[in-house]
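Structure tokens
________________
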Amino acid sequence: MSLAERNLNESGVESADRRHNIHPFTDLSVMEAADRTVIASAKGNYVYGEDGRKFLDGLGGMWCVNIGHGRDEMADAVASQIRTLDYYSPFDDLTSAPMAALAEALATRAPGSLNRVLFTTGGSTAVDSAIRLVHHYFIRRGEPSRRHIITRDKSYHGSTYLTASLSDRGYSTDWNAETAFIHHLTAPGLYRRPDGVTEAEFTQLLVAEFEAKILELGPENVACFIAEPIQGSGGVIVPPVNYHPRMIEICRKYGVLYIADEVVTAFGRLGHFFASQDYFGFVPDIITCAKGLTSGYVPAGAVILSDEIYEVLSRPGTYFNTGFTYTGHAVACTAALKNIEIIERERICERVREIGPYFEERLAPLADLPLVGDVRGRRFMMCIEYVANKGRKELFADDVRIGKRIWRHCQKRGLLVRPLAHLNVLSPPLTLERNEIDFIADVLHDAILDTADELVREGVAAE
């Protein structure tokens, strides 16, 4: 019997979890008393509880299980790699076949001249590394004052100290986020744009705000703009048409680098390997990716940068001081290569382009239900925003926990969605079938109505 089995036989999963495990992004004041759903196994688009309950995985683990759960060929590839080469240091001039092959595979599929790859351990470390690379780049160019970073409200870029400071999810005041060189712009969300402003006018306002911020800081002091093509954890915020191409025009005008944080949007979630060029029509200077890189089977991340940036970084006279013990881990790279093979062989990107609009179509009518202010997203990134007053778009008080209530009713019906305050987010495996999309839409419909009735009975909402 293994140590894990022996320990859990003595205490039980829930008991051990309550007493010792700190869950991420959780209200710890209520976490210890909260009910646990112990996920014991997973296959295809479903996960299974320890008690035998079956759940459709409406959030793809965490935006990441793109090819679905429990792929035998993935398990075989990983096991074979462990038996051949489990791990060795990637530092200095050491390499491995999986690391070299994956770097080539990513460079081949990335847009423009993004041909150089630095591997990391996940999305947070990819973004953190990208910012360090940008600062290093400008120092090497003789422009050390270029250190200011411009990002956006409702962004999410990671959970290291730097990347959490870049993010804006309403929790930065809890730990004194870095503010000296990080600046936030208005989120490009159409639902909450000023009344009477058209989409084109809103785009112009956002672009003007960006240019004004650069001029306020001084172009000689601004290093980069970082943006998710679609903002994920901030509420699946889809920007206006031409937003990204217009923003990169401003970057080019003032010599500012553009980092596309594709940790969520890459590897098929929007129907393309990378969304920047193929979906939104722009080529960034750097792409960060993770999550769908391995479909969550093994942790991994990557920074893909242009030849132009690499040329500056590789000039003689300095040392490249960035990397991790697990950079280019052979097992993670093998998992990523197998993942890419599956995505291409099964034409998963094409499938998302075909079925994704149906997902949007089936969720759209939820906007007519009580509590629902907005239904938004693209293809396999969707979000429902709940409001206490539709006309004024007022949010419920935090203690109502509206997203969590609806999440609970969905779970009772066999669907897992992600509760984010006043939102529910959906990012299912890209192998989802049409009948499973119907199931998601029907369960959400009933869960929202049940929650509305619940709030009326409690006196929180009017009939």
In short: The chain has a mean pLDDT of 94.
